[in-house]
C-alpha cells in the first residue's frame, strides 16, 4: 500500500506556498538540488577526465583552465568533486534505503506486538547500535576487502537500529489513539493497522529522520573513504581527496578546501531541508522564532 502524509484541510498548493516561505526549507532545497544536479551532470560530462594523470599540470592553483586547481597527479579537482558527489550520494542513499527498509518494519512490528517480542527486538537493536559504522566497516573490510559496496553495507547496518527506534517510538504514540481502537473493533489485524494507519501517521517523522541519516551517511562515507575503506582509486571520493591533501596543505591547500567545502555544504543543505520539512509538515515541532 502506498504511504501518504495526510494533512487535513490543507491542499498541496497551500503546503507548497508554506514551504517556500520557510527559509530553512528554501535554503536546504536549493543547496541539495545543486549538489544533486552536479552529481547527475557528472555522469554525462566533467571538465576533464578524472582518471587521466597529467603530471605536468600537478598542484596548479585555481585558474580559468582549472577552476578548483589540480591535485598532485594533475587531475582537475572540480571534475573530481563532481564525480565524488555522485559516489557519496549513491552510497548514502542506498545505505539509508537499507536502514529504512529493514528498520521501519522492525520498529513497527515491535510496537504492534509489545511484550517480550518488543523487548527482545529492542535489545537486539541496542546490540547492533553499539557497533558504529566505522567499526562495522573495519570488520566487513577485514573479511571481504575495502570498497564502496562494503561501505554501503556498514552504513546501512548502522542505520537499521536508528530507524527501528524512530518507527517504534512514533508507532507507540499512535497505537492508543481512538481510530486505532476503531480499526481493531472492525476486525483488522495488527499488520493491517500498522500498514494502513500507523505508518502513514509517522511518515513525516521518518521523512525527517531520513534526511538527517542521509547527511550522516555522506559524512560516514567520507570518513570511510578517508581511511581507505570506501571507494577505491581511481574512482574519486571526497574523503579520499582529503586524505591525499593532508600532506600538501602548505603547497596546495585547494586540494583540501574544495572537497571539504563540498562535504560541509551538502550536509548543511540536507540538515536545513530536514528542519524545513519538519516545520512545514508537523506544526507541533515548529521552533519558536
Question: How would you describe what is shown here?
Answer:
The chain has a single domain (21-44, 68-285), classed as MetI-like fold (Orthogonal Bundle). It is an all-alpha fold. The two termini are 38 Å apart. It is 70% helix and 0% strand.
Rg over alpha carbons: 22 Å
Q: Averaged pLDDT, please?
A: 88
Q: Stretches where pLDDT falls below 50 for ≥5 residues? A: 1-10, 285-289
The proportion of residues forming helix, as a percent range, comes to 55-70%
Output the CATH topology.
MetI-like fold
Number-wise, the strands total: 0
Query: How many domain modules?
Result: 1
Q: What's the SSE pattern?
A: HHHHHHHHHH
Protein structure class: mainly alpha
* Main beta sheet: none
Distance separating the two termini: 38 Å
CATH architecture: Orthogonal Bundle
**How many DSSP helices?**
10
CATH class membership:
Mainly Alpha
- Give the overall silhouette: elongated
Strand content: under 5%
Fourth-tier CATH superfamily name: MetI-like
Membrane topology: Multi-pass membrane protein
Subcellular location: Cell membrane
InterPro entries: BP-dependent_transpt_permease (IPR050366), MetI-like (IPR000515), MetI-like_sf (IPR035906)
Family: Belongs to the binding-protein-dependent transport system permease family.
Amino acid at each position: 500500500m502506498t504511504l501518504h502524509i495526510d494533512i487535513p484541510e490543507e491542499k498541496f498548493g497551500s503546503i507548497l506556498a508554506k514551504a517556500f516561505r520557510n527559509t530553512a526549507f528554501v535554503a536546504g532545497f536549493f543547496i541539495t538540488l545543486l549538489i544533486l544536479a552536479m552529481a547527475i551532470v557528472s555522469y554525462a560530462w566533467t571538465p576533464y577526465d578524472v582518471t587521466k594523470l597529467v603530471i605536468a599540470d600537478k598542484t596548479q592553483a585555481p585558474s580559468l583552465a582549472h577552476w578548483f586547481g589540480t591535485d598532485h597527479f594533475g587531475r582537475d579537482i572540480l571534475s573530481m568533486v563532481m564525480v565524488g558527489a555522485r559516489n557519496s550520494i549513491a552510497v548514502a542513499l542506498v545505505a539509508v534505503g537499507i536502514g529504512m527498509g529493514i528498520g521501519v518494519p522492525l520498529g513497527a512490528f515491535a510496537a504492534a506486538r509489545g511484550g517480550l517480542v518488543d523487548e527482545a527486538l529492542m535489545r537486539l537493536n541496542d546490540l547492533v547500535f553499539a557497533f558504529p559504522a566505522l567499526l562495522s566497516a573495519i570488520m566487513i573490510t577485514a573479511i571481504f576487502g575495502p570498497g564502496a559496496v562494503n561501505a554501503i553495507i556498514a552504513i546501512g547496518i548502522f542505520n537499521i537500529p536508528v530507524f527501528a527506534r524512530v518507527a517504534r517510538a512514533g508507532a507507540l504514540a499512535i497505537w492508543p489513539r481512538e481510530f486505532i481502537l476503531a480499526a481493531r473493533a472492525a476486525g483488522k489485524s495488527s499488520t493491517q493497522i500498522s500498514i494502513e494507519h500507523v505508518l502513514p501517521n509517522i511518515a513525516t517523522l521518518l521523512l525527517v529522520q531520513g534526511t538527517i541519516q542521509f547527511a550522516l551517511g555522506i559524512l560516514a562515507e567520507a570518513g570511510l573513504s578517508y581511511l581507505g575503506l570506501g571507494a577505491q582509486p581511481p574512482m574519486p571520493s571526497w574523503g579520499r581527496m582529503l586524505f591525499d591533501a593532508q600532506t600538501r596543505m602548505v603547497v596546495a591547500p585547494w586540494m583540501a578546501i574544495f572537497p571539504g567545502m563540498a562535504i560541509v555544504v551538502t550536509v548543511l543543505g540536507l540538515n536545513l531541508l530536514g528542519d524545513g520539512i519538519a516545520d512545514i509538515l508537523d506544526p507541533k515541532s515548529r521552533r519558536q522564532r
